[in-house]
Amino acid sequence: MTSGALISIEIVFADATKQELLKLNVPVGTTVAEAISFSLLAELFPEQDFNKLPTGIWGKPVARQRRVAEGDRIELYRPLAIDPRQARRSLAAEGKSMGMPRRSR
């Protein structure tokens, strides 16, 4: 961190039962890793090891050393319970869909 000026960012995480979006003011020059440690996520999700989860900003993967900018939304991605392709295959085998309306021909 290099400056006393503050910027506004968000950090989001969701598990199978709840989701949190936290708004933080952090010093200019803060990295993704530092922002995660400043947040309360570890207290809200004590069962998660946030050091091992992949991170992104607005849906694009980023390294934890990346410096955050005003308005960034840091996202922490947990492992999927099932591969989405396998889920679609299983539903299709049962004659179901993932909730998307089917096109009429």
What name does CATH use for the topology? Ubiquitin-like (UB roll)
Mean pLDDT: 86
| End-to-end gap | 58 Å
What is the alpha-carbon Rg in Å?
A: 18 Å
In the predicted model, the low-confidence regions spanning at least 5 consecutive residues are none
| Derived structural class | alpha+beta
Strand content: 25-35%
Please list the strands of the largest sheet in the order they lie side by side.
2-1-5-3-4
CATH class, anyone? Alpha Beta
Outline? elongated
CATH superfamily: Beta-grasp domain
Helix content: 10-25%
Element string (H = helix, E = strand): EEHHEEEH
| CATH architecture group name | Roll
Largest sheet at a glance?
Answer: 5 strands, mixed
Number of strands: 5
Number of helices: 3
Report on the architecture of this protein.
The chain has 105 residues and is α+β, with helices and mostly antiparallel strands. The chain has helices at residues 32-38, 41-44, 84-93; strands at residues 6-14, 19-27, 55-57, 60-61, 73-76. It has a single domain (6-93), classed as Ubiquitin-like (UB roll), CATH 3.10.20. It has three helices and five strands. Strands 2-1-5-3-4 form a five-stranded mixed sheet, with helices on one face. Strand 1 and strand 2 (19-27) form a beta hairpin. The N and C termini lie far apart (58 Å). The mean pLDDT is 86.
